[in-house]
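idk why but the lab printer keeps eating my pages so im just putting this in chat instead. protein + glutamine:
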Amino acid sequence: TELFDAYRERAAADRAAADDGLNAYTWVADAAPAETGAAHDAPLHGVPLAVKDLFCTEGVPSQSGSRILAGYRPPYTAHVVEQLERAGSTLLGKTNQDEFAMGSSNENSAFGPVRNPWDRERVPGGSSGGSAAAVAAGLAPWALGTDTGGSIRQPAALCGIVGLKPTYGSVSRYGMIAFASSLDQAGPFTRDVTDAALLYRHMVGRDERDSTSLAHPDAIELPKGVDLKGIRLGVPEELTGEGIESGVREAFNATLALAEQLGATVETTHLPHAPHALSAYYLIAPAEASSNLARFDGVRYGHRTQDPDDLLDMYVRTRAEGFGPEVKRRIMLGTYALSSGYYDAYYGRAQKVRTKISEDFRAAFGSFDFIVTPTAPTVAFRLGEKTADPLEMYLQDFCTVPMSLAGIPAISIPNGLSDGLPVGFQIAGPAFSENRLLNAAYVLE
Ligand code: GLN
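predcted complex ->
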């Protein structure tokens, strides 16, 4: 409980500081929980855990960064949180995020933006910006986030920490407030790669309540590699060309040189369909979101408008008041893409591109152990810098979205600074290659 109290005080102080703090937390536990549940010899006994707001936590506010879920306290806890509690962790707090995980800067939250601890005038990345900022600033030893198109890897990069997006299906989505169900994947934010392995090993597992969840074929081991002898790294030309800021490129090249010194071979390769990944993602993700978000109707959860004229008026005004502008934009995009007459032209084609991207990776992994890219094309940008142009914001996901569409694991590790701000290096591997991926990341970190 001493450890818990130390973190709890820091997290609570940040929350109390309001505009002077990072705004990383939306809720902080009042006190160390009474000694119940996990045994003293549980592997994570007493280690506090910060959790992105969109994980349902029984009796604890869970709003997914949205006004429409104001006052919602779920009657149950997400599978992965439950599993970590069983391993001995205690819930420290809920972290701020972009509304329904839509965003790359954490400026789309009903709770206001999160600040980057490296420079408080800059964004922490998104959508799991609160988790990333909390870990980077020492307000949590580690945290859970979710990644649909980059929301673990990109904020990890912008905050200078480690973020793992695991193989799709390896962690149950039960109790995660859904954004795009075929892409959403929970994963750890940690200070180093060993911690990522340690947290992830207690997250994996088949859960009957998520029909897409799968048992991981391997027990997750703590990394212990010393070199990269015999490891073949592929650098996809399509993801490492134009659009990558010069400082980010320099850090990337320096890490490639280090990898070679450590015994890896580095070669250029191709993912021919990767340039279409963003377009496919921004049809598929909004399409799924428009369907997932239909449940927020003012009847079942959270916010309901005052004095509606009739049922339709209740739906319309509840949703108009409850959703923020980015969420509304995605619902409109997704509804359009799924509407009859346009379905084949948009959603159908996007699914075909998705298949092609998976095939590109499969082909590349025939010749390479891992595909490596910068995690994000830029370092942390200024608050407000990209809010006026959604397309500009979507470019942040350029290097992370292809792996999401393919369902494969990818990790971001810090690889130096550019203008005093952290840069991230992304390593992606075949489905269920987490042990090898964590080992390579451990050697390079
Ligand atoms: N930035 C991307 C989006 O807005 C990814 C978000 C995510 O991974 N949750 O959709």
